[in-house]
């Protein structure tokens, strides 16, 4: 396939936009080469600026669980837009979406809408701190909770020691309140909790991780976290930006049968428009302004176009919960196909999967945390990524990302994908 116009557009974009993109992973830095500029998309397919058709395994990084340009969502947005795009005043549709989300997700009474997953996580942690009167939080190496300062903390050598910033611009003062534990490692959490008695407001986690590839929590890990939180009076924050309304109506709480204290949402809840949200039971949510003292706001929060997309999306998922099973079945089918091909090639690999999240790591060791994920062979990954792209398959351009299947993918698309893997590794 030819990507000439994409390359020309990228060259021009670089003159006016830092790195040519408005979010770094889009620039293909990890895999090399120029990013694809998309012109339009429908269902499971992207159509790029060179006229190529690509089978899409990213779905805008998760939101488009029913495929691109899903008609009920598009129509809802068009109809809403005719009535005005923003008011900065309350509208009925905000309550409609809130009511539906609260009915689908276990263990929440109220929800506040924001504009991104970053805002959701940032606000959730502020609320946890305000509610508990404590400052520190625990996060897990390799988990991503958006780009607000408290979360841009890299794993240091000692999980019990203070974090250090991994992005210039994050102050040491902020970094010291973010403590790092290892995913699937309860001992690392216990050690931190012990060393910071009565100081930890919240533990925030991706209940199924998708930002170091897909990583599944081991049996007992989430239960263990819940127990530590209960014993130590720490709030458990599930960052369900990826998992919410993807792993099932009730997201990871339902899929893993664990209740968290605060939930963060993004992606699917906005149907492809900029929406994030955080939610909890009344006693926590009533701590938020204007009822309570913890401040949080947004000019475009609850935007009518965004709410209409979210409402159309959740209405569809609520009415057809069989979609989640259909997606999981497709993902399992893809898993089996990939397994067969890769095994036959004698390449070391691991495939992790949960629901409609899946990823391939080129390593011999099981991938259970950031450390094991980082051992993946990036040269093999690059060849795989570019080979697939040449075959018209669009995969995440980094091994530290999950694929997100969408329900418009057909079994024929999945077969085409597996056949492409076969030809890539024959070459
Ligand atoms: N949390 C998780 C788990 C995410 O995957 C992401 C984004 N991929 C975010 C938070 C941040 O969301 P956004 O990019 O909408 O700010």
What does this structure look like?
The protein has 427 residues and is of the alpha/beta class. It folds into two domains: 4-68 and 323-337 and 374-426, Aspartate Aminotransferase, domain 1 (Alpha-Beta Complex); 71-319, Type I PLP-dependent aspartate aminotransferase-like (Major domain) (Aspartate Aminotransferase, domain 2), CATH 3.40.640.10. Helix content is 38%, strand content 15%. It has helices at 4-16, 71-81, 92-104, 117-132, 172-175, 186-195, 221-232, 251-256, 282-285, 304-319, 322-345, 370-373, 378-390, 411-426; strands spanning 38-42, 45-48, 53-56, 110-114, 136-140, 153-154, 164-165, 178-181, 200-205, 235-239, 262-265, 276-280, 350-354, 357-361, 393-394, 403-404. The strands form four sheets. A seven-stranded mixed beta sheet has the order 4-12-11-10-9-5-8, with helices on both faces. Strand 1 and strand 2 (45-48) form a beta hairpin. Helix 3 (92-104) packs parallel to helix 10, helix 6 (186-195) packs parallel to helix 7 and helix 11 (322-345) runs parallel beside helix 14 (411-426). The longest helix has 24 residues, at 322-345. The two termini are 16 Å apart. Residues 155-165 have low confidence and may be disordered. 4'-deoxy-4'-aminopyridoxal-5'-phosphate binds at residues 61, 116-118, 121, 144-146, 206, 210-211, 239, 241-242, 266, 276.
How do the strands of the widest beta sheet line up side by side? Answer: 4-12-11-10-9-5-8
Beta-strand residue percentage:
15-25%
Name the CATH architecture of the largest domain.
Answer: 3-Layer(aba) Sandwich
The CATH topology of the largest domain, please? Aspartate Aminotransferase, domain 2
**How many E strands?**
16
Number of helices: 14
What count of structural domains? 2
Order of helices and strands: HEEEHHEHEEEHEHEHEHEEHHHEEHHEEH
Oligomer: single chain
Helix content range:
25-40%
Overall shape: it is: globular
Mean pLDDT: 95
In whole angstroms, how far apart are the ends? 16 Å
CATH C-level of the largest domain? Alpha Beta
Given helix and strand content, the structural type is alpha/beta
**Major β-sheet profile:** 7 strands, mixed
| Cofactors, ions, other ligands | 4'-deoxy-4'-aminopyridoxal-5'-phosphate
**Could you name the CATH homologous superfamily of the largest domain?**
Type I PLP-dependent aspartate aminotransferase-like (Major domain)
Radius of gyration from the alpha-carbon trace, in angstroms: 21 Å
């Amino acid at each position: 396939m030819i990507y000439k116009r994409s390359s020309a557009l990228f060259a021009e974009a670089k003159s006016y936009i830092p790195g040519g993109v408005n979010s770094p992973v889009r620039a293909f830095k990890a895999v090399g080469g120029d990013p694809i500029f998309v012109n339009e998309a429908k269902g499971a397919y992207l159509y790029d600026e060179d006229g190529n058709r690509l089978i899409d395994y990213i779905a805008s990084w998760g939101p488009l669980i029913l495929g691109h340009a899903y008609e009920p969502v598009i129509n809802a947005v068009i109809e809403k837009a005719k009535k005005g795009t923003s008011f900065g005043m309350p509208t009925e549709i905000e309550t409609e979406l809130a009511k539906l989300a609260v009915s689908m997700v276990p263990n929440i009474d109220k929800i506040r809408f924001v504009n991104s997953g970053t805002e959701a996580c940032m606000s959730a942690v502020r609320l946890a701190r305000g509610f508990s009167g404590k400052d520190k939080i625990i996060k897990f190496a390799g988990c991503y909770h958006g780009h607000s300062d408290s979360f841009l903390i890299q794993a240091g050598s000692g999980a019990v020691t203070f974090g250090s910033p991994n992005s210039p611009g994050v102050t040491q003062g902020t970094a010291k309140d973010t403590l790092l534990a290892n995913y699937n490692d309860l001992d690392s959490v216990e050690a931190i909790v012990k060393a910071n008695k009565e100081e930890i407001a919240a533990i925030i986690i991706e209940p199924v991780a998708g930002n170091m590839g897909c990583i599944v929590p081991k049996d007992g890990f989430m239960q263990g976290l819940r127990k530590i939180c209960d014993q130590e009076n720490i709030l458990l924050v599930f960052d369900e930006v990826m998992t919410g309304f993807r792993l099932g109506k009730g997201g990871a709480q339902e899929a893993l049968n664990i209740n968290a204290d605060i939930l963060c949402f993004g992606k699917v809840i906005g149907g492809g428009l900029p929406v994030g949200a955080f939610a909890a039971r009344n006693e926590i949510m009533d701590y938020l302004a204007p009822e309570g003292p913890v401040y949080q706001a947004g000019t475009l929060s609850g935007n009518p176009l965004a709410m209409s997309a979210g409402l159309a999306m959740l209405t569809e998922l609520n009415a057809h919960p069989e979609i989640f099973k259909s997606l999981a079945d497709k993902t399992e089918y893809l898993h089996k196909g990939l397994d067969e091909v890769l095994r036959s090639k004698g390449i070391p690999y691991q495939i992790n999967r949960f629901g409609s999240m899946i990823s391939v790591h080129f390593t011999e060791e099981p991938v259970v945390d950031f450390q094991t994920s980082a051992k993946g062979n990036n040269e093999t990954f690059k060849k795989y990524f570019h080979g697939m792209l040449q075959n018209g398959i669009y995969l995440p351009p980094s091994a530290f990302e999950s694929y997100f299947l969408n329900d418009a993918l057909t079994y024929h698309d999945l077969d085409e994908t597996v056949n492409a893997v076969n030809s890539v590794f024959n070459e």
